[in-house]
Amino acid sequence: MHRIRIKTPQGSSLLFMNRDAKEVTSLLPAEGIFIITDTNVRRYYSDIFPGGEVLETEPGEKTKRLETVGTLCSKLLDAGADRSSFILGFGGGVVCDIAGLVASIYMRGVRHGFVSTTLLSQVDASIGGKTGVNLGEYKNIIGTFRQPEFVLCDHRLLSTLPEEEFLSGIGEMIKHAVIRDRNLFFDISTSIERIDERDPDILAPLIERAVRIKAAVVRHDPEEKGPRRILNFGHTFGHVLETCYGIPHGLAVAEGMLVAAEMSVWTGDMPHSELKMLDGVMDKAGMMQEHELPTNIISLIARDKKSESGMINMVLLRSVGRAITRKMKLADIADFVKYYRDSNRRVNKG
Ligand code: GLY
User: Fold this and answer.
1) Residue to probe by mutation, ligand 1, list 96, 211, 214, 229, most atoms within 8 Å of CB
2) Model confidence over 322-342: pLDDT tens digits?
3) What pTM was estimated for this model as a whole?
């Protein structure tokens, strides 16, 4: 079991890697605990929940909306939660995003932490203090930055994850390697079969390395004023695919990464040989481009959070292991999308 600390001017977060979820009790106050979870997680894991009032939501992305936040705040009030209460998000990315937002606004903010139950949330969503809900078809438009006091990642909980959810987490794990750590990328690539078997001896060190990358980026720029943007690699196109096709976040990001990598070649930032290598590993990992970019993609991108005065902060690659950001005009992105759609190089290439 290893600990990683993320210290920021706004707060500090302690990440417990590969730790038994039951040990969360030792991190919690003696009373005033409110557990936010979803019906699936409760069904599987209520026997390992610590003591406290349980507030339940429906599972899935559709729950990530302001109404859910309002309902949870009302339930907290009815249940007597006050400023000394502690909110524990027990679940995957959606639960952590919502619980973090509730904790950051209920009575102007109460203490909170997470037990992270999915691979996606263990490598990404629960870490780094972003909270958020969607507004209609626009992802995470409403949210805050607030570091959880702790994130406890119990890798044994991953054994019950549906295959698609597991793959979704692998997508974000590969993203961390692709933006910052070429060696991790090669290590993931050579371990794909054992990762697929969810071999804990292989998974635990890879998850930890991916989390260390994210932690280092967040420490440097907790509120995404600049360098943290690289964590959004694959997200500009990924969010559109996720919304339009209803695919799991990490799989949409994986497809978005392939489009962004292709764009990196198109802009002349990355050699084609790197794209080929990335393609090969993503294929081996079971993550290829399967969805067409929708025709209204530019208007969707224009209302993305990464858009500023008609420019988009695109995350591109110089090579696998080295991400860069480039401010691009929507018109340039439209040119690329036309090229990409016309070349029809990926989708259904069989
Ligand atoms: N998922 C991107 C970030 O936390 O910044």
Assistant:
1) 214
2) 999 999 999 999 999 999 998
3) 0.94
